[in-house]
Design brief:
about 500 residues; alpha+beta; 11-stranded mixed sheet; 14 helices; globular
């Protein structure tokens, strides 16, 4: 199997696009800006979805589903949110097609089938969900209301890229209502920590937890918590956000409750979400010029076994041995595939599973059968060793844990060496252009300075880290006083 991947050093963007397609994760569709997620890519997403869903339920959330369409007047009810998403909205104006009288077999929009009110195809679901919550919440006994939905949304992006930015994408969005401001803030922070836990422990990607600046906040939020990750090319990627909505949506949709004291009050809200963009983060953090590198915790196939044989007798003997190992591994909850296809040679299979990022590959031939051994290859390091079949199940289980930890450590090391403190704007620009990564710099706290730095360098403030040290300093751009460093980076 020929990979023919562009290398990361040649063209990182081209390498990414080629890898997503050649590794059978996704492809462009017949609809501009929309993708087809292929079975192998969707299997990874399903594993992500399954782990996140478990974590949400463990924190008390339940799943529901809300409509794809939002009446325009409803969408406009929360002004900041409507304005924030207006340029990305797809709109339904008619509900029927009819035959074109001038062109046989062609259809046109039926002018008599115009909707009384236009419908927005949801770019996010706050409007439809909060209008629903008005009927669900009457008393403090109805709170907290902790709801999540798995859905698709549409944002009419002009420049699209598989997984990272598409006109339609899959995600989950949590929407909660609370009796007090404190409870809502606690919920916003809790979900940020849940996201960080998932991304670090399952995706093996280290993240920085922080707050967005006012100009980078979610439209309609009082505060946006985020987790920021660093990709191999030195660009940042927002891996998840959790928003404290204050009472903005509750007031816009008149969601009130009677408190224990008998007072009628507006609830306090949150929303939070991650999307198939995480698939892009997974590819870009760990993969190499040979293809995907998947962390074992999310790999659809953790171990693949390739037989090497010349005769049917050899194949039958190897299969008998391998089938026993497959049963043993599955009892340990290790996902394993015996690639016994007779339509491809071992070399092709090695290349294919390397491209697809399977963490561990086993090979077994007649000599291995005779010696009671397997050849074990690690995808992350491309190293090989011969291992006795005795106790190999536990050996492989331990090896998968080691690979998971090593991938995380490698990503942490990269982030550490690519996080640079600077104290002048010249130094700021030099690091961005020649090194990349996070730039820790003092900022005077104004949106005006933030915008000027963005215009001059294309770098944005990724977050104000939650663990930042308060220290007096001078803004790298204006020289005005600063309370502490924030993280800048060029970003996806």
């Amino acid at each position: 199997m020929s990979k023919n991947l562009t290398t990361r050093a040649e063209d990182y963007s081209k390498w990414y696009n080629e890898l997503v397609v050649k590794a059978d994760l996704a492809e462009n569709s017949g609809v501009r800006g929309c993708m087809v997620i292929k079975p192998y890519g969707y299997a990874i997403w399903e594993k992500m979805q399954g782990e996140l869903d478990r974590m949400f339920k463990e924190t008390g959330h339940t799943n529901a589903y809300f409509p794809l369409f939002v009446p325009k007047s409803m969408f406009e009810a929360e002004e900041k949110n409507a304005e924030g998403f207006a340029k990305e909205c797809a709109i339904v104006t008619h509900y029927r097609l009819t035959n074109d009288p001038e062109k046989k077999g062609k259809l046109i929009v039926d002018p008599e089938a115009k909707l009384e009110e236009e419908l927005i195809v949801r770019p996010t679901s706050e409007a439809i969900i909060w209008s629903t919550y008005r009927g669900w919440v009457q008393s403090y006994r109805d709170l907290p209301l902790l709801i999540n939905q798995w859905a698709n949304v549409v944002r009419w992006e002009m420049r699209t890229r598989l997984f990272l930015r598409t006109a339609e994408f899959l995600w989950q969005e949590g929407h909660t209502a609370h009796a007090t401001r404190v409870e809502a803030i606690e919920e916003s922070e809790r979900m940020m920590h849940v996201y960080a836990d998932f991304v670090e422990n399952f995706m093996a990607i280290p993240v920085v937890k922080g707050l967005k600046t006012e100009s980078e906040r979610f439209a309609g939020a009082d505060e946006t918590y985020c987790i920021e990750a660093l990709m191999q090319d030195g660009k940042a990627l927002q891996a998840g956000t959790s928003h404290f909505l204050g009472q903005n949506f509750a007031k816009a949709f008149d969601v009130k409750f009677t408190s224990k004291e008998g007072k009628l009050e507006h609830v306090w809200g949150t929303s939070w979400g991650v999307s198939t963009r995480l698939m892009g983060a997974l590819v870009m953090t760990h993969s190499d010029d040979n293809g995907l590198v998947l962390p074992p915790n999310l790999a659809p196939i953790q171990v693949v076994i390739v037989p090497i044989y010349k005769t049917d007798e050899q194949f039958d003997a190897i299969s008998e041995e391998v089938n026993q190992l497959v049963v043993a591994l599955r009892k340990l909850n290790v996902s394993v595939k015996f690639d016994n296809r007779d339509t491809h040679k071992p070399g092709f299979k090695f290349a294919e599973w390397e491209l697809k990022g399977v963490p561990v590959r086993l090979a077994i031939g007649p000599k291995d059968l005779e010696n009671g051994t397997y050849e074990v290859a690690r995808r992350d390091t491309l190293s090989k060793e011969v291992v006795s079949k005795e106790g190999i199940e536990v050996y492989l289980q331990d090896l998968l844990e080691t690979i998971q930890k090593d991938l995380y450590t490698r990503a942490v090391d990269y982030r550490t060496t690519h996080t640079t403190e600077v104290n002048s704007f010249e130094e700021f620009k030099d690091v961005l252009e020649n090194k990349g990564g996070f730039v820790a710099a003092h900022w005077d706290g104004t949106a005006e300075t933030e915008e000027k730095i963005k215009d001059a360098t294309k770098a944005t403030i990724r977050c104000i880290p939650l663990d930042r040290v308060e220290e007096a300093g001078k803004c790298v751009f204006t020289g005005l006083p600063s309370k502490g460093r924030v993280l800048f980076a060029k970003a996806y």
